[in-house]
């Protein structure tokens, strides 16, 4: 089992993004308490699986619009 921070480090994302992945069902996790802000224990298998999916399908980058230099 991994903490949110360790899962984030392995995936190269923020802990907040890990919590989003858990909420979306992309990571398997169990709360370590009976309250809404309880820390999560995330399975290593689900982190490995998501890392592989992300490697096979890298997230798209946003296009940036170059500002014009107008006099």
Architecture blueprint of SSEs:
Blueprint: H1 4-11, H2 15-23, E1 29-31, E2 40-42, H3 44-56
Structure, described:
This protein has 71 residues and is mainly α. It has one domain (4-56). Strands 1-2 form a two-stranded antiparallel sheet. The protein contains three helices and two strands, in the order ααββα. 42% of the residues lie in helices and 8% in strands.
User: Helix fraction?
Assistant: 40-55%
**Individual helix count:** 3
Q: What's the total count of β strands?
A: 2
What structural category arises from helix and sheet content?
mainly alpha
Beta content: 5-15%
Low-confidence stretches: none
Count of separate structural domains: 1
Order of helices and strands: HHEEH
The major beta sheet can be summarized as: 2 strands, antiparallel
Assembly type: single chain
The overall pLDDT, averaged over residues, is 89
What strand line-up does the widest sheet have? 1-2
Q: How far apart lie the N and C ends?
A: 58 Å
Shape: elongated
Q: Cα-atom Rg, whole angstroms? A: 17 Å
What brief labels describe this structure?
71 residues; mainly alpha; two-stranded antiparallel ribbon; 3 helices; 8% strand; elongated
